[in-house]
Recover the amino acids of this structure.
């Protein structure tokens, strides 16, 4: 993995034209058995590739699906560096441990970007999903419960709480966070607490795509008035805000690692 201070140098033929191509963008998602989730994530990777036709854009997975991280990096041109962009909403075990290990162990010059969240562009998409579900933030007596996957890594949990605070500031509606695993409060408890306060409750799904955790969101969110769709949906063009976010994470990591 490239360290700060290292720089990839361009090799030039006699006519002066550079033969170096920009570092590949390797988008690594969690992976899912859900066909809808797979299609939704593929839509985001395809959207990034369309937005940056000058880059080699590849997809891969840290769990469940293939190709895994090592195979995805091996698929990049042998003379090309790579930037791994986690298609993950917060930086938990997969980012701090799995992806750090996989990128460091690979012989290719590789940089690892930050996770996607927190970021205002995620709030843009959450807001769009809330409006599509029928939420009117101007109606009094409403609450939002942000449904997050959860993590045993406190940094990831704090990332989710920060996104909840950002969404509350954006909409002017009270937002609490409920977790689907590994952290408290659990989503069902957060929904019940909001309901006991006499509010109309909307669950805002803070998940990348359909799959196991979205099914769990609908089950645990049964006490709410509405549950929004995840950030990505199959058959729907990936939101431009998410495409831009992935590209910006790539550019940021590439600049930090001083890659071409």
């Amino acid at each position: 993995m490239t360290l700060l201070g290292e720089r990839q140098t361009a090799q030039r033929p006699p006519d002066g034209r550079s033969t170096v191509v920009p570092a590949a963008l390797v988008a690594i998602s969690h992976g899912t058995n859900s066909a809808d989730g797979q299609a939704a994530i593929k839509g985001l990777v395809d959207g990034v590739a369309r937005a940056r036709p000058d880059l080699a854009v590849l997809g891969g997975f840290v769990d469940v699906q293939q190709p895994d991280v090592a195979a995805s990096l091996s698929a990049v041109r042998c003379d090309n560096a790579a930037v791994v962009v986690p298609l993950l909403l917060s930086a938990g075990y997969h980012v701090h441990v799995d992806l750090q290990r996989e990128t460091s162990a690979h012989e290719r010059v590789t940089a690892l970007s930050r996770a996607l969240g927190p970021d205002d562009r995620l709030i843009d998409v959450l807001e769009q999903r809330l409006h599509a579900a029928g939420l009117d933030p101007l109606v009094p007596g409403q609450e939002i419960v942000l449904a997050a996957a959860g993590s045993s890594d406190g940094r990831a949990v704090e990332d989710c709480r920060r996104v909840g605070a950002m969404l509350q500031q954006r909409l002017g509606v009270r937002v609490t966070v409920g977790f689907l695993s590994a952290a408290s409060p659990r989503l069902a408890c957060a929904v019940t607490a909001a309901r006991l306060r006499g509010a109309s409750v909307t669950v805002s799904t803070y998940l990348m795509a359909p799959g196991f955790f979205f099914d769990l969101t609908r089950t645990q969110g049964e006490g709410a008035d509405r549950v929004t769709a995840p950030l990505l949906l199959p058959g729907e063009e990936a939101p431009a805000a998410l495409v831009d976010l992935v590209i910006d994470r790539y550019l940021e990591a590439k600049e930090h690692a001083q890659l071409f």
